[in-house]
């Protein structure tokens, strides 16, 4: 380390490993125009008196507004405000266009649906190289339950929180044991099976097994499929669907076989659609219980990571939500 | 919002929704003693000249050291340095005890295995309520590939990053479709099945199906089990193991049936153990490929969230890594 002069890009990259939240800071220019910028240089400073700080590029168009107006609002953005962050990070003119605002102190723009908001009055403006450091006394604040957005290494992020009590599931295995609870495949399997198990009560009353549940799910999205098409969608779950499997579902009045133009297609009956909707409702209820326990932001983070894992290991499965034509095009392209 | 006076606890809670990284900042006292504190009030200030800032409680024991010594190092901690963060956040005397240090400029303590490190010289010390704000010019820095630790709402956290290109898997379903790719159960299932599919080649050469793979996995951790015990461990995967299933594994020379004290127990053969080790090796290779694609920190975040999901939905499964006695005790307790 310790180079007297160094590459600014590398310096920025090293700095950006420090995770931050994302804020929008607003004020009003002398002519009354609303002004706002996205900043991740925010931090708390003092509890008594309550103070926060952030820094602003000396070349920023908003500098005159922030130096002339002593009042400004800091908004800690929620995970749903990524687009708003992008809007206020750009040099556009109409940043506030179409935004519904809350009424703030001194008529300073106050954005809605944030994780937390702080109404501040400039206490000090300090010199900081190519930036000015704004230290503000906090006059008021509020906080919602919306999970906050984070930023790390140039990407938006969500925090996956580590509870203080730790996250170990089972006993610590002896060191020679190569199969541990830290194996990603074990964790994914156990998560999947436990989530299905949480559905078992409804599946039992519907006299359906896991595979039949998958079949109804597929038909609830893409109705009227041949058995070959059903198999392209459930194939990856490991078990091939047979005509007998489908006949059993017919028997139970969940699906009906429709012959048209020489092809035999399965269609959900009203009963089948109702059964599927009930399963989805239970799955969503389970998901809400999980969100209550681990936090809505953590569930969102989990979904993002699930999707990234699925993309990273996708063997080229057909898209359940695409039309047949789109899937054929995808197949041809790959 | 806008209360003239407010509860400091609530204020702290609102501030803490702003996600931060975690740093340790070190210097040396006038008597030469190493000094270090954990701080999350760090942030970047200026690129040209390169400057960073952080703030220190005026009542901190380390204040005299930081005001007298112009040189200090900022260490952005990695996800593996949570314990170090705790150590430097306490008022203990021997924070550096047993720590191996790198050689820093001006003999300022330089910690190892961090995500990034900055060697700084105080440029300004500013007033900030009950804290002092230290602005330092960065004289040198380095950066590793270790994923950084984060902190949010009083908990350590890992960032689950959202790629700029988005994370959507498939086509957008019509609004009336209640089964979407955002259903947690769908994502968990697809993740599980794709991870197992990545193992299919080795399972195929071993002539094993998914259930047999689960059985060998269980026996690789807890060898010498009765079929009832095997079933208590694989039960949650949905398929009951029969004597025929076990006989097939015997036939293939993966397990052997040992009768002892009137009970019949299955033990992995050398061949069975080798097969299991090969499966685990492949599972670990798949995991490494995923880490290469989505990032090691994101895989760690995923594991934490998996474990929290599993805890939140655990129907009381026996611990595969505990002894029989421990599991019996757990069963009695619940």
UniProtKB/TrEMBL annotation, chains A, B:
<protein>
    <submittedName>
        <fullName>Flavin reductase</fullName>
    </submittedName>
</protein>
<keyword id="KW-0560">Oxidoreductase</keyword>
<feature type="domain" description="Flavin reductase like">
    <location>
        <begin position="15"/>
        <end position="158"/>
    </location>
</feature>
<dbReference type="Pfam" id="PF01613">
    <property type="entry name" value="Flavin_Reduct"/>
</dbReference>
<dbReference type="InterPro" id="IPR036388">
    <property type="entry name" value="WH-like_DNA-bd_sf"/>
</dbReference>
<dbReference type="InterPro" id="IPR050268">
    <property type="entry name" value="NADH-dep_flavin_reductase"/>
</dbReference>
<dbReference type="InterPro" id="IPR036390">
    <property type="entry name" value="WH_DNA-bd_sf"/>
</dbReference>
<dbReference type="InterPro" id="IPR012349">
    <property type="entry name" value="Split_barrel_FMN-bd"/>
</dbReference>
<dbReference type="InterPro" id="IPR002563">
    <property type="entry name" value="Flavin_Rdtase-like_dom"/>
</dbReference>
<comment type="similarity">
    <text>Belongs to the non-flavoprotein flavin reductase family.</text>
</comment>
């Amino acid at each position: 380390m310790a180079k007297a002069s160094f590459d600014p890009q590398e310096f920025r990259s090293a700095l950006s490993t420090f995770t931050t939240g994302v804020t929008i800071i607003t004020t009003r220019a002398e002519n009354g125009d609303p002004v706002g910028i996205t900043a991740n240089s925010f931090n708390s400073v003092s509890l008594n008196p309550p103070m926060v700080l952030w820094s602003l590029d000396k070349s920023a168009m908003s500098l005159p507004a922030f130096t002339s107006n002593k009042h400004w609002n800091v908004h800690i953005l929620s995970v749903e405000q990524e687009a708003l962050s992008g809007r206020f990070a750009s040099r556009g003119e109409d940043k506030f266009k179409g935004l519904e605002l809350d009424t703030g102190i001194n008529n300073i723009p106050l954005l809605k649906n944030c994780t937390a908001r702080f109404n501040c009055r400039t206490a000090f403006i300090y010199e900081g190289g190519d930036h000015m450091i704004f230290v503000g006394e906090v006059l008021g604040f509020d906080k919602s339950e919306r999970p906050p957005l984070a930023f790390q290494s140039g990407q938006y992020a969500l925090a996956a929180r580590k509870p203080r009590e730790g996250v170990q599931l089972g006993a610590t295995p002896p060191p020679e044991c190569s199969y541990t609870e830290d194996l990603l495949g074990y964790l994914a399997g156990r998560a999947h099976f436990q989530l299905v198990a949480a559905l078992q009560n409804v599946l039992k009353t519907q006299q359906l097994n896991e595979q039949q549940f998958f079949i109804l799910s597929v038909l609830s999205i893409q109705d009227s499929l041949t058995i070959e098409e059903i198999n392209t969608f459930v194939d990856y779950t490991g078990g091939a669907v047979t005509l007998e499997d489908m006949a059993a579902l017919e028997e139970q009045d969940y699906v009906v076989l429709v012959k048209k133009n020489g092809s035999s297609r399965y269609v959900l009956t009203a009963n089948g659609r109702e059964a599927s909707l009930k399963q989805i409702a239970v799955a969503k209820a389970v998901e809400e219980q999980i969100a209550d326990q681990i936090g809505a932001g953590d569930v969102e983070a989990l979904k993002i990571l699930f999707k990234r894992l699925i993309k990273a290991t996708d063997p080229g499965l057909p898209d359940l939500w695409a039309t047949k034509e789109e899937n054929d095009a995808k197949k041809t392209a790959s």
